[in-house]
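Memo to structure team: turn this sequence into structure tokens by end of day. - J.P.
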Amino acid sequence: MKTSPLLFALGGFLIGGLIVSAAFTFFNPPQSSDPVMNMASTLNGKSGAEFDKAFLSGMIVHHQDAVKMANMAEMSAGRQEIKDLSKEIKLAQEKEISQMQMWQVDWGYTSTNDSTHNMGH
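Reply from structure team:
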């Protein structure tokens, strides 16, 4: 039985596609679904004021998310210890958010595009 040149071409095409797909995955790994890792990756390569601005912006969003989670815990947690902890978390996070927002203003890091612009605080 003779093997058709068309079969060789098709096999080569499939193998080539697999190689390209594997190379693409290797050189373009999927982004992390972990928000903290994504936030941390935005700091890579930054230093000085550029780092400070990105750090404050990311940490404010991170703290705002913690406040949202604490609000949910106050309303939905089954254990009183969790509800008590959520109140402490909210107080600490809100204090730190205010401090970081003041630094943003003092250091000229605010703009209309910042994540903290429409916070309502």
